[in-house]
Design brief:
By secondary structure, this protein is an alpha+beta fold. It folds into 3 domains: 2-191, 2-Layer Sandwich (Beta-Lactamase); 214-374, Beta-Lactamase; 386-605, PPM-type phosphatase domain (Phosphatase 2c, domain 1). It contains 17 helices and 22 strands. A 7-stranded antiparallel beta sheet has the order 1-5-6-7-2-3-4, with helices on both faces. It has a 5-stranded antiparallel beta sheet with strand order 9-8-12-11-10, with helices on both faces. Strands 13-22-21-18-19 form a 5-stranded antiparallel beta sheet, with helices on one face. Helix 2 (29-44) runs parallel beside helix 7 (168-213) and helix 3 runs antiparallel to helix 7 (168-213).
Length: 607
């Protein structure tokens, strides 16, 4: 085996090309001319694929090498063949990816940084015995390092039939080709890295927008997975821990049939929680798992039967990266990225990007879970506070309706009806401004307070005065409006006091409508003043509807327009049961957007 001496630092090849031509024997000038064209092609190559074809085809043809390889470092310890010609598939499989320390011309060239040659089969097998089954017959081999300024990135491997000894001019020219190849790869890699970083930043921005757009995290994660494919992976799958199983919430691939195949694999062969490798190990350790090369041996080692191996092979898995989803010190899921039919491979530089996305997704999931728990608590509180049904009282028909908004948080609407004795009833409808648990808690306090004060003195003036005093002593962050009425059948009248709330509307027995007075005061607890009291007749056959502002308010519209719609719709309530009539009224008047909660109470005097 021969190892060439130190070569000059890689540099543009024109001066060295001229020197090589000057020194060349006449018989080699045509070879050198072809190699000169190769260096020219490399100087303008714009992709790794183009470089690969130039080396294993044009450069190899120029020197008459039927077998050629182009190998690049995956990492410090591993070489991967990215370009190959002249070997059968079964011969090539052994060398798709191999340790740098393996005795081959290419690996020796990478380790030494120098050109390596072996002339004839005897010399080849003496120094590279592992090539015995790969290169048959009498062969000579050359390994040319691809050197950059600070390291050797790979090598070109060439094999010739017989005892082929290259001339010094040919070797020097091949070294020029190798240097030009290294420069081309560095240039292309730099451009691709810049484009890749720009694309990653753009993707993270898009993903952040998706993650912030909704609290429905499963739908959001599915969109994020689809964003990733095929930009940064052939596959993207997201799994959340559910007891001893991983629940797949999202999987994306450009081919829907492949997605179904992946789901079949996941359902039939769920990951083993006790496995020392795979997603569960990422869950246990909280560390990312990079499998740069998925080999057939790996698939067979983890499979439980031939069917699992068959499906895995059909998916063409070749590289995978799994990162944890963690929040508040706990791992609750994983994101897995996979390269398959594209033939690409993940590297260590992809890990930081994947972890960045996983952190953003984990925060979004955690926030959504917290919001879901908070919402559930608020809904439960609201459900416990609002009456399931209003009381059945002689001489009265009562109905209530509550519709939550289309938003993700509960509001503070509340209502009730209280029998007072002597046939009288108190009815109230209120609204705590704001949403969520705080609004629901304030609503529960206000409803309880109204009932308590009504038990002491049910008159509208007394109840509102007591509420004002309570809120003055114990201020609330939320404004509260309230419409409170007492209906007295003995006097055929109702009394009403209003603290900043929309007025109720009456439907008379003759189907005319009449509006109760607008509020003459501020919401409860705002200022200390005497509340006004209004009286109106309320006879047998009359119907009253009280409601919150969600029924009448619309953006960019005067509230009087909403009140007008109520007046126009109420005559249709006659002749129907009050429950049915009230539901129909609210459904007819409520905005399709469901932008606010609606609470409504209807009272019809029947005797």
């Amino acid at each position: 085996m021969a190892v060439s001496g130190d070569r000059p630092d890689p540099r543009p090849g024109q001066p060295r090309l001229l020197d090589a031509f000057d020194d060349a024997a006449p018989g080699t000038s045509s070879t050198l001319a072809r190699l000169a064209r190769v260096t020219s092609e490399l100087a303008t190559a714009d992709s790794v694929e183009a470089v690969k074809q130039i080396i294993v085809t044009h450069a190899a043809d120029a020197v008459g090498a039927p077998i050629a390889t182009l190998s690049l470092r995956d990492d410090e310890d591993t070489l991967r063949i990215i370009g190959l010609r002249g070997l059968e598939e079964h011969q090539a499989d052994r060398w798709r990816r191999y340790p740098v320390g393996t005795a081959t011309p290419s690996s020796r060239a990478v380790v030494t940084g120098k050109t390596v040659t072996a002339v004839g089969r005897t010399e080849m097998l003496e120094h590279f015995p592992e090539l015995r089954t790969t290169l048959e017959g009498d062969q000579s081999v050359v390994g040319l390092p691809l050197r950059s300024a600070d390291h050797t990135m790979g090598a070109i491997g060439l094999s010739f039939p017989g005892d082929r000894r290259l001339t010094s001019a040919e070797l020097e020219f091949l070294e020029i080709v190798a240097d030009t190849c290294a420069q081309a790869l560095e240039r292309i890699n730099a451009l691709e890295e810049a484009a890749n970083q720009t694309a990653k930043l753009a993707f993270l921005a898009d993903a952040a927008g998706e993650l912030a757009s909704s609290l429905d995290y499963e739908t959001t994660l599915a969109r994020v997975a689809r964003l990733a494919v095929p930009r940064f992976a052939d596959w993207c799958a997201i799994d959340l821990v559910n007891g001893t199983r991983l629940h797949r919430v999202a999987v994306a691939h450009v081919d829907p049939a492949k997605v179904e195949l992946a789901r079949t694999l996941q359902d039939a062969y769920p990951p083993d929680p006790d496995s020392p490798v795979g997603p569960w190990e990422v869950v246990r350790s909280g560390n990312p798992l990079l499998i740069a090369e998925i080999t057939p041996e790996m698939l067979e080692a983890v499979a439980t039967d031939e069917e699992q191996v068959r499906i895995a092979r059909e998916l063409q898995l070749c590289s995978a990266l799994t990162v944890p989803l963690a929040a508040r010190g706990k791992v609750f899921g994983v994101i897995t990225w996979v390269y398959a039919e594209s033939g690409r491979h993940f590297g260590s530089d992809d890990v930081a990007f994947a972890e960045d996305l996983a952190r953003r997704a984990a925060v979004a999931i955690d926030n959504a879970e917290l919001h879901s728990q908070t919402l559930a608590a608020a809904v439960e509180l609201q459900r416990a506070v609002l009456p399931e049904a209003l009381p059945a009282l002689p001489g009265w028909e009562l109905a209530s309706h509550y519709s939550p908004s289309g938003r993700t948080e509960v509001g503070g609407d509340f209502y009730d009806a209280i029998p007072l004795g002597g046939g009288r009833i108190a009815v109230f409808v209120g609204d705590v401004m704001g949403r969520g648990v705080h609004a629901a808690a304030a609503m529960a306090q206000m409803r309880a307070a109204v009932r308590a004060y009504a038990a002491v003195d049910p008159s509208p003036e007394a109840v509102l005065r007591s509420l004002d005093i309570m809120l003055a002593r114990y201020p609330s962050e939320q404004l509260v409006t309230l419409l409170y009425l007492v209906l007295n059948p003995r006097h055929d009248e109702l009394m009403v006091a209003n603290a900043g709330h929309p007025p109720a509307v009456l439907l008379r027995s003759d189907l005319s409508t009449e509006q109760l007075p607008w509020a003459d005061g501020a919401p409860l607890g705002v200022g200390r003043r005497r509340r006004g009291l209004s009286r109106m007749s309320f006879r047998t056959g009359d119907t009253l509807v009280a409601f919150t502002d969600g029924l009448i308010e619309r953006r960019d519209e005067d509230i009087e327009q909403g009140m007008k719609r109520v007046h126009e719709a109420m005559p249709a309530m006659a002749g129907s049961s009050l429950d049915t009539a009230l539901d129909h009224l609210v459904t007819q008047l409520r905005l399709e957007l469901h932008d606010d909660d609606v609470a409504a109470v209807a009272v019809r005097r029947t005797g």
